[in-house]
Amino acid sequence: MKILKNITVFTLVMLLSVTTGLEARDKNVSNFSSTSNYVDSVGTFDGNKIYADVANNGLFLDYHVSGDSALEWPKGTGAHSIFQSALWMGATVNGSIRTIVGDYTQDMGPGPWGGDPLAAVHRIYKVEKSMLASPLDFADFQEWPVDFGAPWVDVDGDGVYSPLPGGTDHPEFLGDQVLWFVSNDGDPAYKLNFGTSPLNVEIQTTMFGFDRPDVFGDMVFLKQLIINKGSDDLVDTYMGLWSDPDLGNAGDDFVGCDVALGLGYVWNDGADSVYDNLSVGTPAAGYDFFQGPMVDCDATEDCTEGAKMFGTRHPGKKNLQMSSFAFYINGDATYTDPADETEGYFYLQGLRKDGSAYPNEIAGDLYDQRFCFYGDPTVTHSNANPVDGNYAASADRRFLMSVGPFTMAAGDSQEVVFGIFHAAGGDALSSVSYLKEIDALAQTAYDIDFALPDSPPSPSVTASALADQITLVWGDEPESYNVVSEVDLDAAGNPTNFVFEGYNVYQHETATGGGAKKRLATYDVINGTTEIYDTVFNAELGENINIRTQFGSDSGLAHFESITTDGLNGNSKLITNRAYYYSVTAYGYNADGIPKTLESSPRYLTVRPEVPNTAAVGDNTASAGDVITTVHTGPSQGSVDVVVVDAAQMTGDSYTVTMDDAMPDGTVAVNWTLTNDMTGEVLIANNAVVGGVNTATGVEVGPGGTPVVEGIQLLVNGPQEDLLSVEEWTAPWLDANEQRDNAVSYVPFASLGRTGYILENRAGVAYSPPYNRDFDRFNYWESDDVELDFSTPSVGYDYIYEWTNSMVPFSAFRHNFATGNKEQMYAGYWDYNANFTFDLDGASWVGPVYGAPGWEPIYCFVGMVATPYDPAKEAQYLAEDDLTTSGGCGWGSGGSCDNTTTSGATIGYPYMTATMFTDYLGSGVLPTADGLAAYGSTWVGGSSVVFKMSKPNSSADTFTFTTEGLGMMANAFDPDRISVWPNPYYGYNPEERDALDRRVMFSHLPEEGPATIRIFALDGTLVRTIHHNDTASQHATWDMKNNFELPVASGMYVAHVETNHGDKILKLAVIQPEQRLDVY
Fold first, then answer.
1. Cα atoms found within 13 Å of the Cα of residue 520, Cβ hemisphere only
2. Global pTM?
3. Which of 231, 321, 339, 841 is deepest in the core (most CB within 10 A)?
4. Cβ-based neighbours of 1045, under 8 Å, separated by 6 or more
């Protein structure tokens, strides 16, 4: 080992820069032309864990865009799996070979055949499902090139693309992100490889992927429509997926294929020097031709199912499968890049570039030696199991997987579908095995036309910070998530659903999600589903195991998280001004799913604990957790608690909460709306979470299941519809207002009335769902109280025949909650023994709970709105002898009753049903004045038996409150707050990512004006000048270099910060790490 002490840091940096610059170009990438007509028509796919540079010139993965490998995976790590990739074609036209070979130089031009390749309209278009929320904001959505073939959904069926929001149409979203572009080889000026005449084909490419945290998030799919626009037939046509894979380090790659799967792949010769430094370990990457060209079946083939093409099946046809797998090596003397169209055409046929077959040691004994390395790498190499590495050591490989031959007549079209995917199985060989499992999943996605169930949408997340606390706040967008899965079937073979289950809060080591990660919290709905176990692939073991994948606990939902400790560093206190990284995801659950949970992809936030420049915490400032008082106007038993979540976001404004009885779609459910009275903005509309339960869905979300807005969270409380109690009062109830007994039935507890009775019903329960024979069979009562007044008799109608039986010893009243009126009803009973008397009939009626003999069941009817029961007309009622004739809503009204419930539902059945007074003691009587006297009661006069219903919030209720004086106190900018961190700098800043990344950060710089930072050595030498003009940030970074971009030495420095509001002088100690270079 040598220690080179005299290499300066500057020299070292230059050497590293040169090395880095050569790394991507240390490849044979310009074999065929020293000139280029390269057209700058490029884009990026970044819709999941893949980041890919894309070009519209036949190179669907193109390193020219960045000068580095075209496909990065995982996104944000700087590790790449594919350097370059393209679709090749070769055919004979009138006996001459013509090709499209895009490797490192384009062989096609942008745009449709015959179009202008430089026209802006022929760019790469990019849309995402999330754009549906605000489609007018995205030019590619509005200008989606349907005239050139881009797929779209014609919602209104008029054949004209009228995009949302003005119209109803939108691009077809095969995945969460979709790219579309068209290219052609009709212009010889763009045929830069081999110089053959054009094939005159147009290729329309749809590239798409799924934003999912599972293996589908590691895939990108391409659907290419190839059209023969020329006048010549293309005979003996081959198509090939060509790839120059550089799996991390380009020089340690092997390649192989699986003929049965149609898979071509790259894998590593042991641990990879790039990927092994990441948490994923050494992976493998592969391609699969899911749909090859369509051709006629042979007479001996069973093609009943037919070929899949253009979205339909074609009986009598078949899709060609992979016909060969060729490879070559950068710089190899024998197996190297093709030099002309003949060599390229031979490679497309699975032959060596001279037209001879690959030897057995490479292509084995099967398949006419057209499939190189089709063996299983986990099994020893042999001619029966050919595996890469036997012929030559690992190196910079390229491969070509082809389908053919077939003929494309002039005007014909073919559609091919393929995918690129990754697998990290722990080590190189395990990753190959895992890749084949993932390929099977990708094939399933194709088989179901990519109708994969969507993951939940990511919640919108905002963050704010104080000096020692970070508050994350997220929206409720994912909570309506409920998607059908056609691939996950239940035991009966029916599709199943993924349904929203909860949220996860994570802390990450880096801003891109790389490195360590810790789950800080999980908040889930209260439904009995807690921890979720699933079978997943374990990279360390190289096998599937059953593990816990979600950590729910029926905690209830939350929409904010207050963080005071560093979860990745032993829960130590947060460091002011240091950057921390977080994400909040949503997950759904399907007991029949594979996997059982789908989780949204993380959206990373960078947050620094700090005090805002113009804010101070004063004595009258609210703190997190404080509850603000509301003023209630209305009749409900509800309340609204306003909880302070983030005082820094509070406005000082006044607010109003209004209630409604139904959702906008007509669903009967109490819901509420929050409006800022000062701005008039509706902050929360029609939220149905009351008392921790979503009244529209019945899902119990917990008290924290409401959104956070403007620094506050509303906890809306109110009873659900229910029978609270059955009580006995001096009659009439509200006139006397004197309670005699607080329980005479099942609720709030079982108890006898004043005269020895207990009130039951035929169902034996207090209040249950409709159709049960309880007091209110069809839940008409809602918030109405009901009274049976035993001080006043009334006409009694027969429940079945609706004639008048006799007078009954009570009058029935509905206390209409909606109107506030006391409305007398038409009383009745079931005269089962046909004696025209309301009597104790223990032979026919027995209470179901206590077995006591009962009086005949009471049934009471409301009247038409214009004809409520009128005691003055009782003689008339007896004479008419018919409920409907007298104005009651009975069977004879034939559904024409115009009386409704509080919520507006028509009342078409007796309002009170199946209500029985039972003689529990054997000596009980009804609570009339005579009955009470005979029973020996001291109460004088008859009783009213009152059924009290809960009083939910309704449109008659409002709640108001103000946050005035409760937010952060605003102050003028104070330059004394300016600071630098870390100070001292001990050779390390936890935000630094590598050995050359040195920095300190100045904080509390003015956001409303410029600042200039001058850093001096102690002898007065100006070392560095930094200009801060970022009005969106109070931070500026010093990279520990002087004005000549050289690292500064260890020592003391003085920083003079000049602002429009005053200056600040800071001292900064810098201790640089030892700098040396070890050479072996």
1. 24
2. 0.75
3. 841
4. none
